[in-house]
Design a protein that fits this description.
By secondary structure, the protein is of the alpha+beta class. Helices cover 46% and strands 15% of the residues. The protein folds into 2 domains: 31 residues, no CATH class; 63 residues, no CATH class. It starts with a strand and ends with a helix.
């Protein structure tokens, strides 16, 4: 591992590589982009591509330093609403892409 990637004041393990770019580490292993994409596509269904594009537009509206400083705070503004009886990461909720788009346009 070559350090950590800052995300809203939090440090996330990552590995930098000229060939592959930045990659997340999960359970001590480098996350494979194809595996991550399949997982997310399974969770998002037919909304995967619109969600991915909205998040890319938001990321493109920020400098690298802004991403490091603001990423988690931005996520808090658009994260899905989850019913009160659901708990933890992975609970199903409704992601409002208009919130992400609005954040990108404000930049």
């Amino acid at each position: 591992m070559k350090g950590a990637l800052g995300t809203g004041g939090r440090r996330q393990p990552r590995r930098g590589d000229d060939k592959d770019g930045l990659r997340a580490i999960s359970k001590g292993e480098i996350a494979k982009p194809d595996s991550v994409a399949r997982y997310l596509a399974g969770k998002f269904g037919d909304k995967f591509e619109p969600a991915r594009l909205a998040m890319q537009r938001l990321a493109a509206s920020l400098s690298g330093d802004e991403q490091n400083e603001e990423a988690f705070h931005l996520y808090e503004r658009f994260r899905p609403e989850v019913p009160a009886d659901e708990k933890g990461w992975g609970a199903k909720g409704m992601l409002d892409l208009a919130k992400i788009e609005a954040l990108a346009k404000r930049r």
